[in-house]
Amino acid sequence: MLHPSHQLRFINPVIGYGVFATEPIPKGTIVGFVDSLDIKILPKTYERLNDKVRAIIEHFVYIDKEGDGILAWDNEKYINHSCDSNALVTPYHLSIAAHDIAKNEEITIDYTLNDAYLDIHKEGEGLSCQCGSPNCRKIINNLDIDSYLPIFISRLNEALTCSLQVKQPLFDFMDTKEKNELIKAFQNHSDCSKIMLEFLKKRSSNFHKKWNRILS
């Protein structure tokens, strides 16, 4: 589920649509999380689809910790990539604002850390990137993740320290158990390096076990 202060806007024929903040979203705010309405796409489901439907799935589906595909039911699936994204993936099944996101600023995420958009894996060497960021890596893949992971984790640690100092509108849409576990994780946060590395390792392992045969 995506933060309520957003709007879907058409950017251009090449990029298509993007998600923009309609109000300021402070650093540390939960931008989106996996909820019960999101659609789980299993390899056996994907395998039964025709090519046109597969192309849609490959474009919009990302991979969760268990290696299964997730198709967001709302506008979260339209969030575009940036090599210098203002939202960051976390090991808690949610994304968080990396800095203060201004009103009318496009909300972006790093697809490489969101790992495993199916079209990235299908292409093997990655997809061409034209995000326009000064730090653009020119290609979206998960082959060079180790080189910039320390920078990503540093940004994530900074954002997580703000998480309990800002309003969290999406807390209202979480069940009590999920919200309490998340608050506890935020309270105990110091350095997410270990848990993030474990998260990425498990997701990658599960993904390859489930999808390699189908996407090869």
Topology summary:
Elements: E1 6-12, E2 16-21, E3 30-33, E4 39-41, H1 43-47, H2 51-60, E5 62-63, E6 69-71, E7 80-81, E8 87-89, E9 94-97, E10 108-109, H3 118-123, E11 127-128, E12 139-140, H4 145-160, H5 176-187, H6 193-215
Parallel strand pairs: 7-10
Antiparallel strand pairs: 1-2, 3-9, 4-6, 5-6, 8-9, 11-12
How would you portray this structure in words?
- This protein is of the alpha+beta class.
- The chain has one domain (6-215): Beta-clip-like.
- Helix content is 33%, strand content 19%.
- The protein has helices at residues 43-47, 51-60, 118-123, 145-160, 176-187, 193-215, and strands at 6-12, 16-21, 30-33, 39-41, 62-63, 69-71, 80-81, 87-89, 94-97, 108-109, 127-128, 139-140.
- The strands form five sheets. A three-stranded antiparallel sheet has the order 3-9-8, covered by helices on one side.
- Strand 8 (87-89) and strand 9 form a beta hairpin.
- The radius of gyration is 17 Å and the shape is globular.
- The mean pLDDT is 89.
